[in-house]
Amino acid sequence: MITLKLENISFSYPTGFNSKLRVLNNLSLTAESGNIIGLVGKNGSGKTTLLNILKGVISPETGSFQIYTNEEIFTQSFIPLVSQNVDSNLFPTMTVFENFCIVKNKHCSPFKKYYSKSNYSYCQDLLLKANMGIEDKIDEQVRFLSGGQKQALSILLALENDLPILLMDEPTASLDPFVSESIIGLAKKEIQARDGILFLVSHNLNDIIKYSNRILILSDMKVKEITHKKNTSELELMSLM
To answer: Residues near 33 by Cβ (< 8 Å), separated by ≥ 6?
Structure first.
């Protein structure tokens, strides 16, 4: 069981000498295992800022952020972020297996062909979950994969950490609809299998409605939740933003 809790988070960007632009103001949010959270809002509403706070890239001015598990409390933890820029999530000139080794800290050097059969086999089994043929390209450089294969690899590697929490910021913006469906479906399936938490930011409101079990709207520097998610249409959701 995982619980992610933000309490009274505020954040501002400097805009000039002794001036700031407030983006988040006393924002509070709780997410638990099994939550697939669709996060929407107008441009500039603070969606990416919130994801970067969760990831740990930026620190809030005020408030607290903690992750609770059955065993301990994590006051600071690296949470992976999969963005629309797939190459920023991976090492393009290294092979698929070398990317896996780096993530898993298996001490596999790209400059000497060292690996154990068990690590190699585990990586192949992991890649099979994507059902995109990546397991057949395990020894190829990532730059030669398709956009969809790269994004699928990003998701699988991102979830190879202690906490099954995943942030996705417009992960399918450059992909065709069929591949997009596979990518988000893969992320949701893996998160649910690991009883984790997924945050999905997308301008495709149909994806938000289809895949999430909670929809949060960032507006006026705070979040509000839609309680009747199943009956929400794209037009209604847009009107609430």
So the answer is: 1, 2, 3, 195, 196, 197
